[in-house]
């Protein structure tokens, strides 16, 4: 596969309306433990939650306690809210207009599954996400870093990748900066290449820094290593999709 210049071109969103598709995507977010961002109307506050239950028989779902918990008072008042999650580079979003029931004993919220869900694949090129159990160790270093940073590889494409680090390292890195060494320990051997920092965000609630980097002046040999790894992940993802086709 070759790097695509159209990788960053947004794809049009799809609207899912069948109960089977919607339930499958809710289960995907639940099984992957992907965080959800909840917003109420015009309020500026953002709250985090997770899907912790999906029941197709009753057509209901269960959301975990909101963080910060003050968001619960808006839910208790019956205020409609928007939910947004991301899985493997896909934005999955919906609106909740029905009043949800607060389950006191496990501090969660029960309500109906959404009637429609926006499914938005934001990239043209295949961006392979790694399963949590098999995240690749990485190390990033260079003249602009006093000491190397060690983290995990979250996803990868032919032109770049997403990294995450424990704690807040945002003050040690600078957007637009080229770092001479990104070392990723692929199953078949280590890859080393310069990268340019394109995105940086510290998520305080989970004490994690996320970074997006683009490969910089990548050599032909390293490009083939990247493509080999992406191809392996793509093949695994297609096999998984086939096994779980809905």
Structural class: alpha+beta
> Going across the major beta sheet, what is the strand order?
1-10-7-6-2-3
As a percent range, the share of strand residues is 35-45%
Shape field:
globular
Count of DSSP-assigned helices: 3
SS elements, strand count: 17
Helix content: 10-25%
Average pLDDT taken over every residue: 84
Q: What is the radius of gyration?
A: 20 Å
**Main sheet makeup:** 6 strands, antiparallel
Uncertain segments are 1-10, 241-246
Distance between the first and last residues' Cα: 27 Å
H and E string: EHEEEEHEEEEEEEEEEEEH
Kindly describe this structure.
The chain is an alpha+beta fold and 246 residues long. It is built from three helices and 17 strands. The strands form three sheets. The protein has a six-stranded antiparallel beta sheet with strand order 1-10-7-6-2-3, with helices on one face. Strands 12-13-14-17-16-15 form a six-stranded antiparallel β-barrel. A four-stranded antiparallel beta sheet has the order 4-5-9-8. A hairpin with a 4-residue loop joins strand 4 and strand 5 (60-64). It is globular, with a radius of gyration of 20 Å. It starts with 13 loop residues before the first strand and ends with a helix. Residues 1-10 and 241-246 have low confidence and may be disordered.
Short description:
The chain is an alpha+beta fold and 246 residues long. It is 17% helix and 42% strand. It has helices at residues 19-31, 71-76, 220-243, and strands at residues 14-16, 36-39, 46-49, 51-55, 60-64, 81-87, 90-96, 101-103, 108-112, 117-121, 128-129, 136-141, 149-156, 160-166, 178-186, 189-203, 208-215.
């Amino acid at each position: 596969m070759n790097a695509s210049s159209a990788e960053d071109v947004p794809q049009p969103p799809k609207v899912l309306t069948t109960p089977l598709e919607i339930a499958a995507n809710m289960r995907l977010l639940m099984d992957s433990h992907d965080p959800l961002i909840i917003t109420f109307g015009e309020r500026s506050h953002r709250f985090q939650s997770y899907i912790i239950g999906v029941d197709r028989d009753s057509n209901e779902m269960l959301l975990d306690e909101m963080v910060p918990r003050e968001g619960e008072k808006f839910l208790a008042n019956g205020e409609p809210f928007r939910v947004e999650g991301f899985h493997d580079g896909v934005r999955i979003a919906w609106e909740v207009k029905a009043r949800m029931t607060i389950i006191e004993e496990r501090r969660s919220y029960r309500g109906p599954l959404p009637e429609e869900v926006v499914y938005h694949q934001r990239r043209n090129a295949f961006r392979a996400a790694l399963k949590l159990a098999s995240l690749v160790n990485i190390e990033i270093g260079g003249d602009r870093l006093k000491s190397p940073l060690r983290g995990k590889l979250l996803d990868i494409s032919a032109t770049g990748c997403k990294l995450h680090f424990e704690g807040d390292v945002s003050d040690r890195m600078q957007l637009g900066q080229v770092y001479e060494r990104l070392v990723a320990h692929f199953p078949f051997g280590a890859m080393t290449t310069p990268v340019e920092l394109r995105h940086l965000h510290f998520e305080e609630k989970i004490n994690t820094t996320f970074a997006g980097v683009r490969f910089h002046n990548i050599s032909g040999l390293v490009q083939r290593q990247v493509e080999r790894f992406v191809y392996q992940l793509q093949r695994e993802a297609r096999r998984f999709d086939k096994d779980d086709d809905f």
